[in-house]
Every structure is written in C-alpha cells, then in structure tokens.
Specification:
The complex is a heterodimer of chains A (284) and B (121).
Chain A (H helix, E strand, L loop, with lengths): L7 H6 L15 H22 L5 H38 L15 H6 L6 H6 L7 H11 L23 H20 L2 E2 L1 H11 L7 E2 L4 H36 L6 H12 L3 E3 L2 E3 L3
Antiparallel strand pairs in A: 1-2, 3-4
Chain B lengths: L2 E6 H11 L4 E5 L2 H6 L4 E2 H11 L2 E6 L26 E6 L8 E6 L1 H12 L1
Antiparallel strand pairs in B: 1-4, 2-3, 2-6, 4-5, 5-6
Helix pairs in contact in B: 1-3
The chains are: A mainly alpha (284), B alpha+beta (121).
Chain lengths: 284, 121
C-alpha cells in the first residue's frame, strides 16, 4: 500500500503550537531540577516494572534505548539548572554593577532580538548559550560572581590541575557525563574511537572505541544520585557566593538595596538560608 | 468497589517511619513533593515532608487486601498495591486546594536493587 500523502509542511509547522503552561516551580532552579530528574527516573522505573510480562528480547532492546534517553534527559536537566541559576545571578547583579562581567555571556544582537520578549535579562543572556562544558561554566560563573572590577576568584568546579581539591571527584564525574551525553546525543550511544580516547583520559582507565553504550539500570540510578548531589552542592555554592558579591556591592554603596529584602528573595529562589550584610533569609 | 482509607499526613508519616523507614519511596504525580525532595528517598525523609505539609489524604486500594502473608502493613494493608517487595498507594489530597488529583506513593525496587548492587561490588 502506498504511503499516504501528507502535508508535512503544515503538520510539522503546527507542532510548536502544541504547548502547555510552564510548571510553577520553574522560577526556582533547584526545584525545577528535582522535579524533572525525578520524572525521568520514574519513567524508567515505570517501564522496567510494568513491562516484565512482555517479550524478553524486544523489551531488552527497548529498555537499553530508554536508559540512554533517560541519562540524556538527566544531564540536560542539570544543564538547564546551571543556566537558570546563572540567569538568577544576572538578574540580581544587573543594575548594581558597572563593570563588564556580563561579557562572560555570549551576547549578540541575534540572541537579544530572539529573547526580546523574555521576562528577565538573565534568561535573555543565559538561555541561548550551551552549558555543557565545565571549563566554560567555570569561566562564566567566575566572571559573573567576581567582586566589582576585580579578576575572577570564584570557581564553581575545581580546575583539572587541582588534584588535591576535595571536590575534584565531582569535576571528573561531570566531565565524564558531558562526554557520555555527547555520545548519546550525537552518535546514538556509539563510543567512537575519538570518544574512547577522551573518556580514557578522563577516567584514567582503558575504554574500548567503536562500541555501543549498554547502560544498566544501576548506571542510570547512579547518574541520578550524582546529579541530585551535584545540583544541591552547586546551588548552595552559587547562592553563598552571590550573597558575598552582593554584600561587597552593598558595602560600597548602601543605598542600592535593602539587604533584608534581597536576602529573603535569594532564600526563596535558591531554597537555602542566606546571610547578606548582616541580614538573613530563610526558605518558606 | 475499591477500598479507601482517609487519614492525616501525620498518620501516614508515622506509618512510614514505623513500618518502612529504610525503604526507598518514589512519588509520582504530586508536584510539590517532587520538587522539594530528591526522589526516591527513605521513608523517614518522605515522612518529614508529609508532616511539614500536613493536611488529609485518601488512599485508595484494590478491592480486598493484596498484602501478602509475609508483609504486615498494618492499617494500610487494605489499600496497598504491589507485587513482590513493592508497596504502592494511590493517593489524593482531601484539602480544598488540591482535592481530587490522583498521585502515587511507591517503593522504588529498581533503585533499591541498584543500591544493593553498588554496595556488593
């Protein structure tokens, strides 16, 4: 039977009309992350638990593909958390600093025009960028969260040469996950010889190239647990550093803002207890 | 006709702490809990969040008890689902602002198995 003639132009063009409202937690990046990370894990749990009566061989193929998709979703949920958190930093600092810290973000006329209707400057500056490289993330947060007119001093993640940093393991683990995400997203889970060479350097152990990832459910669970921990850790670090920078700005000009209001605002959005220039905020 | 059981969040929290504190619990379909906790989590953490929220719930189960003989789920036996080690409850809040929307509380046997595997290796 011949394939039906469909008006693909119309059918594909109308896909962007199929939209729902944003969930309310999207204004709080850490909660946005938890909600979607839990959703991805629940998807896998549901499939693995509810399809045990199916045909074993096709089920195994499907579940392997689903595990890769869930890892991809988890890593990209973390990426979104990072960029939403950066957007909050921009919104808190814009109008309170005169230096060139926002040059850390790739501002160009096209992205500004495309985001003209965004509700916040932070989203306009951060959402178009890709945040899948630890070095770039460090550089952007270092610049965003520097003291006014000073060189960057804050590093969200340890640098690769800081071997004795107690958080170095987090850096190595997220670098491995960025690389695995690349293989899943761009090569359908194939570890090319070039991917294998990069992974070998990151994990300091042999990796076979020209192979396909075959993730276990345990692998996916460990990715979920690690990213849960990493998001909470990064959230607390960024919140504390942002409060420090704002306190420095306030010390220089105490007419710019009332610390109590800003501390409260940061506490609600980061879901952390915040201390800022003698004032404190607590999540409600 | 399924069984139903109305109880307070505090009563469910008490049950979780007393009967299944070390099990890993997932929540599916309750957005406020899902954004507040890293799920699945131990019963003690879910209990703390339920206590923080307060309110009343209705648990709905299958007709008759499905709890097997090896598992004493106490007062929640008539509304518990689950095969093998899994325990699941169908829940709705009875409070006015979130009444009627169904969500699930379920032990996450997949995560539990992964944890056992990680600890064994």
């Amino acid at each position: 039977m011949p394939a039906p003639k469909l008006d693909f132009h119309r059918l594909i063009s109308q896909i962007p009309e199929h939209l729902g409202d944003m969930p309310t937690e999207s204004a709080r990046p850490i909660e946005h992350f938890r909600f979607d990370a839990s959703g991805y894990w629940n998807l896998l749990r549901y499939f693995e638990r509810k399809t045990t009566d199916g045909y074993p061989a096709p089920r195994e193929r499907h579940v392997l593909r689903l595990r890769s998709m869930v890892v991809l979703g988890l890593v990209e949920t973390f990426e979104r958390f990072v960029k939403e958190t950066a957007a909050i930093c921009v919104d808190q600092l814009a109008g309170r600093v005169l230096d060139d810290r926002f040059a850390a973000l790739s501002i160009n006329s096209r992205s500004i025009v495309a985001h003209f209707e965004e509700r916040t400057l932070g989203k306009a500056l951060c959402e178009a960028d890709i945040w899948l490289n630890t070095g770039e993330i460090n550089a952007r947060f270092g610049r965003l969260l520097s003291d006014p007119f000073k060189s960057p001093s804050f590093k969200l993640f340890p640098e690769p040469d800081q071997k004795k940093d107690p958080d170095q393991w987090r850096r190595v683990a997220i670098d491995i996950l960025w690389q695995l995400r690349h293989s899943i997203a761009h090569n359908s889970g194939v570890i090319t010889r070039s991917d294998a060479a990069k992974l070998r350097l990151l994990r300091r152990g042999a990796v076979d190239g020209h192979k396909v990832l075959q993730l276990t459910s345990g692998d996916v669970w460990y990715v979920k647990l690690f990213l849960d921990d990493l998001a909470s850790w990064a959230n607390a670090r960024i919140a504390a550093r942002l409060a420090e920078v704002l306190a420095t700005i306030h010390a220089d000009d105490n007419t710019l803002f009332a610390p109590s209001g800003v501390a409260d605002s940061l506490a609600q959005v980061f879901r952390e207890t915040i201390t800022l220039a003698g004032a404190s905020g607590t999540p409600r | 006709m399924s069984e139903t059981l109305d109880l307070t969040a505090e009563e469910l929290a008490k049950w979780l702490v007393e009967r299944a504190p070390d099990r890993l619990w997932s929540v599916d379909g309750e957005e406020q809990i899902e954004e507040t906790l890293s799920l699945p989590c131990p019963g003690t953490e879910l209990a703390a969040e339920l206590r923080r929220r307060g309110g009343r719930l209705r648990l709905s189960g299958p007709a008759g008890s499905v709890a097997d003989n090896d598992r004493d789920l106490g007062t929640l036996s008539p509304v518990a689902y689950g095969e093998g080690d899994e325990i699941a409850f169908r829940a709705t809040w009875l409070d006015a602002d979130s009444r009627g929307r169904e969500w699930f509380i379920v032990t996450d046997v997949l995560a539990e198995a992964a944890n056992r595997s990680a600890n064994a290796s």
